[in-house]
Structure formats: structure tokens, C-alpha cells
Records
---
Amino acid sequence: MVNLVSNFWWIPLYPFIGSLLIAILRRGGAVIGPAAILAAFLHGLVVYSSPRGGALDHTLYQWMPGIAFRLVADDLSLLMVLIITGVGFLIHVYSIGYMDKEPGFWRYFAYLNFFVFFMLLLVLASNLIVLYAGWEGVGLASYLLIGFHHDRPTVNRNANKAFLYNRAGDAGFLIGTLILLTAAGTTEFTAINQLPGSPLMLVAALLLALAATGKSAQLPLFVWLPDAMVGPTPVSALIHAATMVTAGIYLFARMAPFLAANPDAGLVIAVIGATTALIAATIALVEHDIKRILAYSTISQLGLMFLAAGLGATQAAIFHVATHAFFKALLFLCSGNIIHALKGEQDIRYMGGLRDKMPWTFRLMVLGGLSLAGFPGLAGFFSKDAILIAATQSPILLAVGFLVSFITAAYVSRMLWAVFFGVYNREAHEAHGTMLHPLWPLAIGSAIAGYFGPHQEGAWPIMIASALVSIAGLYLGRQIRLPELLKAFFARKWFINDAYEVILVKTTASRGSSTLNWIDQNIIDLLPRATAFFTSTASLISGWFDSSVVDGLVKTTASAFSVASYPLRLAQTGRTHNYALVIVITVAISFGWYWLQ
Amino acid sequence: MSFTPITTGHYLVLSAALLLIGTVGLLMRRNVIIMLMSIELILNAVNINLVAFSRHWQHVTGQVFAIFVITVAVAEAAVGLGILIALFRNRGTVLSDEIDLLKW
Amino acid sequence: MDAALFYIFAVITLAGAFATVTLRNPIHCAISLIGSLLGIAGLFLLQAAEFLFAVQILLYVGGVMVLFLFVIMLIHLEEAAKLRQYSRQWPVAVAALLAVFIEIATFLNAGFPGLPPSPAPRLIAPGNTERIADSLFYVYALPFEAASLLLLIAIVGAVWMAKKKEVAE
């Protein structure tokens, strides 16, 4: 039989071929899509569970000295593979029901497979260049999927926004990569992770961190994620909860030794994470759109992962990535059920009392929400605690962590109460089939995944404290009445979006447009304008030439004639008398001539 | 009193003088009648010249030529006067300055 | 003797000619011209051109000048006589004629030695008229006929020109 272990590099190929097939056939997305992901998952499972004897790697193509198209399979990458393909598969199946009767059905699945291919490439990469390829690819796929309903008004703008903010970070990625390439001669992680720290390396690390903030929606580049919710809900579940946004944390995990060698970078990352987590949590508290609540929640949770990674607790960060994938995907898909049942309603103020009409969705969503809130015993509790334990290095960060946990529980409670309890006033029906059954594995994961994580030592104080915070938040979440000022402040997203609007968008648009205008006119249009200028000048000259020289010649000739003829004309007196004189004069002259001979 | 003998040269000088006087009259007078008379003078100057040379060469051809010149002069006078009369009838003037229809 | 006669006739000729071109009244000019012509006739006679002397008086004086006088009397020239007589171009004319005069004088002075001496004069010959007749009717018969033709044309032309044009226009 084929050696699946050593041929692990096939894993990305399944979705790639799937995507290609769907695109060529324009149909069969419902079958080919999930099948490809399932194949990848199974293959990954085989490789993961087989004895490997260290990391496997496979070089497909040596591009340049120092840069090769190489994939590596170690515990970290394989774990990510399983998360991606596992959750991905479930979401693919869910999409069959959710996207039913949707025009462009095949396009959706083609894009989705396309995305998974790049994500797998990203996590299996053994060097920064291949990772960058995956990085860019998922950005592209995200753009395509967010903009799936491209006939709706704001969709294209939001898709562009997502892509551009990603791109901004990617600039940092590229420069950082190039710095590392010149420093180490190669971009292989094994080599980079051995580089000693230095100011230049710090710069490179920060640049890569900037890229991570773009991809993982942290400060300063997070504003795209809430707007990305205009995409189909399964897309939000997969890309903007479970996988793509975790790419930043994965990068930190891969380069953990490098970050350790530049501790200041780690500090910056941690601070960014903590700050973002706090801001996002407060915004989630006042949001009304259910998907946006979950989006800000994702940003907040990613912030916690940044916090862990920055402090060097790579295992804790990846642990939380895994658990978060479960419960966040679950929450998104449940919300998808609700939206689908309410025929597109997403505002929680118009929901209520769905507990009876949608009992399973209710239970599943409560489970996911409690896990998110860190209810003791559930997966989220354990992974969050791991992060909090790592945060004990800094009291401030610890305090922020607890605060974030509290607010998280609060907004979860608020959301659940608003959606499922209270007055029932809408027509709704329970989800069924492909929109229900994929949720079970996610629920199970949300519940018990915590027990498979890294073992915590001496964590009891933290665990008790976080448990209390969680329960308090859940309870008070219903009761909290924020001062109007705070509410408004949070609702305006701390004015960050507005600040960006003014600083970046308007300035770039106006300055940019005037700069671009200048560039366009003077550089790009230089050739046509120069040509036009020369043509007009040439025509001017030739016109001048024609009117003054050519016509002048004609006129001069004519006037020469008339001028010359004037004195001659005077001789035509018409008087024979004068003519006789002329004859005599002529005689005199001829005589004189003859005489002089 | 004895003058120098008259040679042919004397006649030639006379002829030249008459020629010039006639030409002067032709060019300087405005009255067309007098211009015609000046032309007669010129022709006569030529005649003198011819006869002088006829005598010099002892040949009669010069005198025959002079007869022809007289003939032509007569014809020309007649026609010229006829023109003059026609001119006077049409223009009312015999002054050459005023007869300038051919002026540009 | 010859010389004296020559000078007398020469003076008459030149004086008459000068008067012709100078006088104001055309009738006076015509009379002066007659005098000049008579002087020329005398010169002819001095050179033993008897026939020509007769022809000159008959034709020129008796024919042409009479014609002139008739025409002068036909045209009322009293008004013209009161006007300016000399053309505006007279300075130029004088200059040109002076030039011509100098040239001719120079010619005469310089270019004469080439003239061979005349043979002995044979004044009494078959006779001047006979000789002219001989020459005219034998040698120059054709020009003679042409001249008569010319006279015919001149007559016709003159008559027609001077005719009043009743049926013209």
C-alpha cells in the first residue's frame, strides 16, 4: 500500500484537486467538497497517529539557494491540520444545507476547498516563503468568500476592507521575511529559530507581528473582521473563527524560539493581545447583531491567544486555538441556524423566546456559550486558565485577563438571554439534517476537549478565581445596565473605526488620490501627454510655418510682383510723348555703349 | 573772305543738329501738331544726310532714297493728321499729356 | 561762294527749325517750318541735286505744309496756345539729347578719317534728273511700286480717319 506517512504532503492536494474539480464541473460541490476535506482529515489522522520518529519533511522543489518548496509534518502542524480539516469538514457538510438553493452553490464550495488548501499549506510549511504563500492564499480565499454575495451593496466594500487590512500586514510579513532571509541565508524555521536576538531581529519580529495582527484581527488591523460578517455564516465559522484568524498565533508558535530570543517583541505582542481583548469584549457587550457579537468575541479571544503567545506560553495559546475552534464554530453555526430560521434576521433585539421553537439549537448554543465564558469543566475553562496562568508573569496582564473573562461571560449571557428567552414573537423552526448534525461533534469537543490539553500545575488558585469570575459574569450579564456614556463609547467601537476612516481612508483617498492623480498625470500619462504636447507643438509650428513661411512665400511673391510692377507701371503713362522720350534715351544709351567699346 | 571749303562733314554736322532740334521739339512740346512738325524736321535731317553722302560717293542712290523718304513722310503726315483730327473729335484736346487712355 | 551760300542756307534751316519747336502759336510754327524746308531745298541745290530741290519744294512745302495749315485751322488751337507749352518731361529730354549730341559730335570728330576722298566731281553728266530716273525706274522699280502702294493706303486711311462717323456706334 501507499505509504501515507511519508507522503503526508498529499494532504493539501485533496482540497486543491477538489476545488479544481468543482470549478471545472460547476457542480457536485456538495459531494466533492466535503469528500476532499474528509480525505485530508483521514490522511492527517493516519499521519498523526503513526509513529513518525521526529518531524517529517518533504522537499517538492528547490527554488533558489535558501528557498525551497518544502513541507514539514510535526506535532504542531499535524494538530493544526486536524483542526482545520475536522472543523472544516463539519462546516462543509453544514453548508450543504445552509447554502441550499443559493445561486453560485458550486462557486462557494470551490472557494471553500480553495481556502482549505491554502490553510493546509500554511500550517505544513517548513519555511517562511511557503507559509507566506499560504498566508496570501487564505487572504484571497477570505476575500472571495466574504464577497460571495457580491450583488449586495456593502459586501464588496467589506471584502475589499478585509483584503486590504490583511495586505497591510502582509507588507510587514514580506519585509520581515527578507530581513530574516538576509540574516540567516534561508527562511527555514529551523534556521531562523536559532538566530540570536538583536535589534534588527527585533524589527523583523515586530514586522511579522504586525502581519499577525492583520491576519488575526488584532490592534491595529482588526476592524475588518466585524465587517466580514456579511459573508455566509459558515464562512464566518470556518475562516473567521476557527482557522484563518488563528494563522497569526500559529506563526508565533512556529517561531517561538525566535520570539524567545527577542523578548521585547513578545512583550509587545502580549500587550497588543491584552488590549485588543479588552476593547473587543466591551464592544461585544453592546452589539446587537448576533454575528458581530461573535465576531468581536473572536477578536477578544484571539487577543487572549496573543497574550499567551507573547508571554512564551505557546502551548497554552495553541490549546486555546483548538478549544476556541470548537465552541466558536459551534456558536456561529447555531447562529446560522437562527438566522436561517428567522429568514435572515440577525438583530438580537428582534429575537426572543426561541428556546421552545428551536430546542436543539438552544442547547447547543448554550453549551458553546458556556464554554466560551469559561464555565468550569468545559473546554474553554481549561484553555483560558492556561492563558491566565501564563499571564501571572505580569499583574497588569493578569488583571486584564480576568476583566476580559468577566466581560466575556457577561456578553455571552446577554446574548443567550436575548435570543432564547423572553417574549416569543417570530416564526421559527428547528434546524434539521445537515444543519444540525454536524454540530454534535463540535458540541462534544466544546465540552471535553479541555481534558486533552497540556497539564496545568499549581493552577488551583487561578482556576477557582476564573470559575468565580465566569459565573459572576454569566449571572450579572443579564442584569448589567451600563451607563449610557460607556454604552455609547463601546458602541462606537472606541472610535477606532472612525479614527481609521479619517486618518487612513480619507487622507489616503484625498492625498492618495491627489498623489495618484499627480502620478497618473505626470508619470503614467507622461508618454501620451508628451506625445500630445509634441503633436500640438508640431502642429502649431507647422501651422505657423504654413501661414507665415509657405503663405508668406506666396504672398511675398505676389507682393513682389505688385511692388515691382508699381514703378514699372508708372512708365505706362499712356502718353506716346513719354514713350518717344524713352526711345531717345535708349538711343543715347546704346550710342554711349557703342562709343565706350 | 575765304572760308574753309565745305566738306561732307559740314553737311553731316548740319544734319545732326537738325536731327537734334527736331527731337527736342518732339520730346518737349505738348501740342501734337508741333510734334508732327518736328517729325518732319527729323525726316528732313535724314534727307540732308542722304544727299550729302550721295554727292560724296558720286552715286545717285542716295537721292533716290531721299525721294522715297519724302514719299513716306508725305504719307505719314497725311495719316498722322487724320489721326489728329479723329483724336481731337473724340478727346477734344490736342495736348499729348491729356491723351492717356492707355495709362495703367 | 559755295561756302557762303552753304552757311546762309544752313542758318535759315536751323533758325527755322529752332523757331518751329519753340513758338507758341502753331501757325507760326508752321510758317517757320516752311522757311526751314526752303532752306533745306537750297542746300539740295548746292549739292547738285536739282530734282530733289524741286521735289522738296513741290511736295514738302506745297503739299505737306499746306495740309498742316489746313488742319491747324480746322482744329481750334487758341485755347491750347494759351496753355503750358512744354511737357513736364523736358529736363530729362534735354539731358538725353545732350548726351546724344555729345556722342554724335565725338563720332564725327573721331570716326572720319576712314572716309576716302571723293572722286573728282563730274557735275555735268547726263543730268541729275535723268540719272535719278534711270535709277528709279530700272534698279529701284520695286520700291517705287511699293511706295505708290503706300501712298494709296495712306490716302484711304487718311480719308477714312478724318471722316465724320455718322453710322458708327
---
Amino acid sequence: MNDEPNLICYKCNLKLEPRKTVLKYLGFSLNADLLRCPLCGLVYLPEELVKGKMAEVEMLLEDK
Amino acid sequence: MSINELLNISNVCIADEQPPCACECPLGLDVRNFIEKICSGFISAAYKLYIRDAVFPGVTCQICDEPCKNVCVRREVDSPISMRELEKYCWEQSRNKPAENYYIPEKKKRILIIGSGATGLSCSVKLAQRGYAVELVEKSNKLGGRLWDIDSKILPEKVLEEELARVTQLKYLNILLNTNVEKLDDSNFDAVLVATGASGDTFGAVCSEDGVYLRNGVFFGGSMLNPGQNHLMSIRQGVELSYLIENFIKVGRMDVSRGNKHVCAFRPDVRNIEPLEITWPRNHNAWTKEEVQEEAKRCLLCSCSNCTDVCDMLQYYRKSAKQYITGVGNTVHKNTFTEKGGLQPIMSCTQCGLCKSVCPVDVDLKSLSLESRKVLHKNGRLPDAKYDYFLNDMWHNNNEGSLLIPPSAGRERCRYVYFPGCQISASDPAYVTESYRWLTRVFPEEMALMLYCCGAPAYWAGNEEEHEKVISEIRSVWSGYDKPIFVIACPSCQEMFQSHLPEIKIVSLWNIMAEKYPQNASRDTVVSIFDPCSSKYDKEVQNNIRKLVRKAGYDIKELPSAGEKARCCGFGGLIYTTNRELFTLIGEQNIAMGDSEFITYCTNCRDTFAIQNKTSRHILDILFFEGEKDRSRRNPSDLTSRRASRILLKKTLMKEFMDSEFIEKPEPHSSIKLSVSPELKEKMNRELIHEENIQKVIYSAEKSGNRVFNTSNHVYTAHSVQGKLTFWVQYTHESDDIYNIQSVYYHRIIIEENDTDERG
């Protein structure tokens, strides 16, 4: 994931960084690097990612 | 019924079954396969297929009296397929070609066959071709038995000789002519076939109704069992016996013949087939290859496709019923090595029930689809998130939107409860107020009203727990009022009540209205009735709707889907979220059925047509709102207005019939003011995103401070988990009051956010 220099966590006032995050769906578990606040862990997901890769993964897991 | 019971029943599907012609064929030829090969021009392949069953193709194609023609469905269109001519052509092209010589290893097993009539002969040929040492013993001086009795005008002697000559060339076949068997000595043989003819020796076998039996390893067949048997049946029997004998040699078990014919279970529909002018052959004694192919192309290759012909879902996925059933079984039983992609079709079934209504063997794909959703939901493998919107809608109906109005004379005199259903109030609250007012005039003091959802969304989502809760609530209201009759307006509600609340007596609103509605003057306008799929078996309601439409002054032009053929409008089974493309396709096909305005009696149907720009009205529009312009072009309200309509309805009804105010309990998030562009609003409608979803995200983000800020464009991004979905909102917040929404999106995957210990 590209490092977006403009994104900050509003509460902690820190730049978001990519961090390994666990995703769960239909009994499956996977890892992904998502932009998160280094202090409180707040997650950021842009629409392109949700509509794109994430939607693909959802369909893949649903069909398993 | 359980999922396994339904899967078992589905296995009787006859989609692969032999067509009527093959069932009648004395040889049991695979007609479809034969025809397909000819159509492709593969004459020698077609011949190979034919000779496999015919054994003596030169004989059979001359003497067959074509019982297939009696059942060929083409007979009802122009004329039956001339199978014999096709077979004859294949034989004539191949008769002079040298026989293919495959090396077959010798099997060290010996079989004695007594009698060289059609049965004994065919059996000998088949066994010898498979490498068994066959000793064929014939009493007379030539092979063929009663084949020689056939009129030589039908079967020229030269042809018979030619066919029999091929037999003598078989490597493993030893023929003994002029040999009479006195005593049956099978000590040197692994099996015996006695096919000595109608008055032939049975060697002391016992004849009973179970058959003829001497001892293990001795088989009987041919016209000795069935005097005067058709020669082709004898050949078929000989072929079958070759397999029974082989099986006995391999496993030691004597199986009996399965019999030759079975009745074909389906009758293909030929109503749309155009009759052809048949100008071939130009010479009856010499068909050309082109003429043979023209004739073969006339064949409809009948196979049972009754359900696929009427099911949009099966056509969309290009699946036969059998393939669908297999997919369901694999998905439910989680066969990881087999077919993937069984889930999408299961979730694309609209529950319209046309499949079951046209199936000649009562295969119920509708119930199979629903049961599999239940099983998958129970095992946590159904993507429930796809149904989240509809379940939320149902909960909204049954909580904030629910209302019970007792009859004006009090509980003691409640004979009826009007149950309009949840969609009708969201479409237009006036539908409910007008129809309830009408009902209270017709049944003064004894008509209650229950605003509630019948549970169809939960049922279609396979969610048994939620469905049961709804059903229980309805049942308890019913028994609390001492079991009144429920007046139902929506055909889907009617189906739900009939299936899951059979103890409750129901009557259709339309049956009541049809009697009492006055006759109006003719409007000189033609409309078409779109029967909702759940009305399929309810002739009374369908007729009463037509009565009402005529009383309202309209003329009716029936659609092809009228009556028992009622189709889904696209809303059924909640496929809107699981298969948007199919939803659109179904709508297009429905609209293409007729040009006149559609009148329907299910609001989902009406609203679905409105989305697709088809002029349509609900029957209540005709009955109560005739004066109002443009009811047919009234677009379905957006999601926010739909819920607001229900609340408005509740307020109106409570004021009018209970003289009380409905005070909404405002939830904290509802004070969040949003500014949404029209494009975004349209996107939200399409994707079933409610304004409330956005309000909840922003409310919790502002309260907790958990939001991402983009320093270059000042856009906030926040998210919250609501039900099974995670909603994301991007917004700017310039002034104190209004939140300017840039975009909103959601996903079903769950993000584990509480892992603050991990570092990337």
C-alpha cells in the first residue's frame, strides 16, 4: 500500500502507517497490510480498495 | 423436509433420460447421440454407434418397423424423423469398408451358446468381440434361425448372407453346424446360453413365473422365453445377455434381464416449432449425404428441459436441473474437490416456484434452494451480510413501524385483522389508510389492523431464528384476539401465512373487494395483469383481481405469464443484492411480455416495474386513486422516504383510529444533518445504503474522535460496524451544523481492530 503522507489520525495527531491487520469472514482468517494509526490502531480504507481488492476477496471466500 | 430428503427427491430428475423415441426403440439405440453425429457429418461415427446396438446393421435397418415414429414429437409438427433411412444410409456407406481390426487379448474363459437364432447369434458376436472363446452350436445347417423366415422383399437374402458371413470371421468364435445337443454338458465351459427357440430343448430347466432356471451359469433367452419375439428385441436381448454372462463369469452372480422398454416420463413441448416443407429425398432409394443431414437436423434432440425453459436463474447460469442439484449438494456438503460456485445460484433463486409447477416428476428446486440457505446459514457459511439491508428493514417494520389497532368495538368483537404487509406502506401510506377505511366501513367495529412484516425477508434469507420470532409474534396477536380471520393484501404474505401459520384462517382482501366494488363505466383502455409469482395456484384471487379491474372499467389483454405461469418480478428470494444482473434481466423479460400498462397486486412488483420505467399501477391505484394523475409514473420512493412513510402511516392511523399521538423516540444519531448530492443519493438507493447508516458512522466518530483526517483536502474518513456490514463515510465538516458527504461504501469482511500489540 502506498504511504499516504496526508493521512493522519485525528485523535492522536499521528501519520498513518501500514500495519499487519487480521481480517475475518465466513470462518476464514487472513492478513493484510492496512494503513493504521501507530498509537490507537485506527484503520483507514479508501473506496478503491473496498470496491476492488476487498470485494474480490469477499466473492472468493463466499464461493469456497 | 430436510436438505438430504430434498436432494434425494431431486435425484429423480429426468433431464438425462432417454427421449420418447429411444424408449420405444427395440434396439435401445441412443437416438440423440446418433442424430448429433450425423448432423456433424460424422457418418462412420454414427455407424459405429448404430452397429454397437444393432450387431447386424444390414438386417436391422431393413426390417425395423420404426416404432419410434409413433412417438416422435416431430409427428405433431410435420412428420416423424425417418430413422430407418438414416440408419440405412450409414450402413450402406460403411458396408464395403473393411472391418476395423483391433487387437483384443484372449480371455481364457469359454462360453457355450446353443442355438444360432438372433439371440444366440448376437450374444456370440458380442462375447467373441470381447475376447471370450465362444462355442456356438447350431442344430441346422446354417446360422440365423428365424431370420431366414423374413420376407426377402424386406430383407434380401444376399444382405442376410453378407451379415452372417462377417460372423464367421470372428477370431474367438467357433461355430459347429449340424450339431444337436442331447445332454447339456457344461463341464468345460464357464457359462452357457440356451437359445434354442420356441419349441427348443430346455434341458430339464424349471419354468416358473420368476423365469427359467436350471443351475448357476446356465442362461436362457430368445424366443424360447417369448415365442414370436420381434427379431430386433432378440438382438437386444442377445447383447444384454452377453453382459449378464460376462458379469456372472467375473463375480459369480446371476443377474436377471432388466427388461427392454420403459415408458418415457416426459413429453417435449412442440408448440413453438415451425413445420418444415420437406422436399427430400429426391430419390427414395438413394439418399444423398446432404439430404440425410437435412433430415437429421429436423430432430429436436428432445430432453426434458421443462424447468430450465421457465427458470431465469438456471438460464442465467446455463445449468441444467441436474447440474444445479449437484452444485447444491456439493456446496451444502462442502465437497472441496468438486465444483465451486454452487453458492451464487443458490442465492439467485427467486423462489417463484415455476420449476416445481412444470416438473413431470415433482422435483422441487424452490424448496431445495431455500433449505440449502437454511443449512448454510446455520453453519455460518451463508454470506448473511448480503441480506442485512432487508433484515434491517424488517426489524424497522416490526419495531418502530409496528402498530396494532384494535377494532372500534373493542377486543371482544374482533372478527378480522387487516394485515396489509410491510412493503405496501413503504410504497405509499395512502394505500393502507384508504383500504383500511374501506374495510372498517364494510365491517364496522370488527376490523383490527396489524402493521407488521410477515417474515418473508428472514425466511428467504434462510434465517430460521429471526423468522421464528416474527411468526411467534403474529401467532400471539392472533390468539390474544381469540383467533380472528386475517385479511391479507399481499400475495407473498399470503404464501407465508399458508406455509408457516396454517392455523390462522386467512381471506384475501381482493376476494372481499371483488364482491362489493361497484361497476364503473368503460374507460376504453386496455391493461395487462401481472400476476405475482406467489399467486400461481390461487385461481380465486386471480379471477377476483380481473373482476375488479373490469369493474373499474378496464379491458384486459392477458400476458403469457398469466395464471399458473406467474413469474417473479425480480424481487423474490432477495436476489436484488445477490444478483443484480439477474434482477435486471428478469425485469427486462417481464416488460417485454406486453405493451399495455401492467396492473399488479403486489407492491414489490409495482415498484420494481417503476424502477425499470414500465408504466404500471397497483390495483389499489385503480380502486382508490383513479382521479389522481400520474400514479403509474410514481417512482418508488428512496430508502429514507420509505421508512419515513411507514412512520407517517403509523402517526396518521393512530390519530384517526386511536385518537392518540405517536411520538417518535429520536435516536441520538438522527440529529446529525447531512448534505448529500443527488448522484450520491442515487448510488445509495441502488446499493441499499440508508441515510441512517451514514448518521450512525458520523455520530460515533464525532463522539469518540476516531476518524482519519486528510490534511490536503480536509476530508474526514470514519467507519462503524452496523449489523453484518462495516460502513465507511468520507465527509467534510465546514460549518457547525451540516456534514457534507463525499462518499459512502461498505464491506462484509470484518476487520479485527483490537490488535494493538502487533507491529507491522
